[in-house]
Design a protein that fits this description.
Length: 237
């Protein structure tokens, strides 16, 4: 199978209020560089990735570009302005990629990844690309390992077998043409605030969605303890 043109679209536009930091969590420095830089580095080093674009707010764009230069990332191309929500940020990214690659003879594969998942592995990236090539899409996922309850805040009234539950991680990987199509459909149907690309595909009934490799270590930094854990992992890696 021929190698496709492959683009990493890294989302770094969030405010990260749950992390209780003075700046958005993706820009918190660990061992002298922002958390986002670890995410960018994982894609920059991967042989299957051709281009990296970072979706971020305008006030952080210079820092992102400067970090890419200082760390000699060779695949970073530019930043893209973030929106007020994850939905609009992804839409902005897709629209920009569409304008840049609309005349491309190939239909690029786009890996949409959270900037605050800095421990994304080479194996996760490779499998996302392979599954997308084979099936047209890929959602990194991990099978549930806990017993899951359903009910209210006080009591459980039923359960769902863990074998039926998979936690969606990122990257969410699709052909660029599919992403353009899905945002056109979302706009036509008035869907403007999906939590993620995966949930948008689900809302629009774009099934089936195919699972690619996820890993426990592919954690999304959300809370203060996640920053603490990541800093400890970095110190021993």
């Amino acid at each position: 199978m021929n190698k496709p043109h492959t683009i990493a679209l890294i989302l770094a536009g969030g405010e990260g209020t749950r992390a209780a930091q003075s700046i958005p969590k993706q820009y918190v420095q660990i061992e002298g560089i922002p958390i986002l830089a670890y995410t960018m580095r994982a894609f920059d080093r991967h042989p299957l990735i051709d281009d990296i674009y970072v979706v971020c707010r305008d006030e952080w764009a210079d820092l992102v570009r400067r970090t890419a230069t200082e760390l000699a990332f060779t695949k970073f191309r530019d930043t893209i302005p973030a929106g007020d929500t994850s939905h609009t940020s992804i839409r902005n990214g897709v629209a920009t990629l569409s304008s840049l690659f609309s005349s491309s003879p190939s239909d690029p594969i786009v890996l949409v990844h959270d900037g605050v998942r800095p421990l994304v592995s080479s194996a996760i990236i490779a499998d996302a690309v392979a599954v997308c090539q084979r099936h047209g899409n890929a959602i990194a996922a991990m099978q549930g390992e806990e017993a899951y309850m359903t009910g209210d805040n006080v009591k459980a009234t039923s359960m769902i077998p863990r074998e039926q539950l998979w936690g969606a991680q990122t990257p969410h990987t699709f052909r660029l043409s599919a992403l353009v199509s899905v945002f056109h459909e979302a706009e036509a149907r008035g869907i403007t605030d999906s939590q993620s690309l995966y949930t948008l595909m689900a809302e629009l009934g774009r099934w089936p969605l195919y699972k690619s490799r996820g890993e426990r270590v592919n954690l999304k930094i959300t809370h203060p303890e996640d920053i603490w854990l990541f800093s400890r992992l970095v110190s021993v890696l």
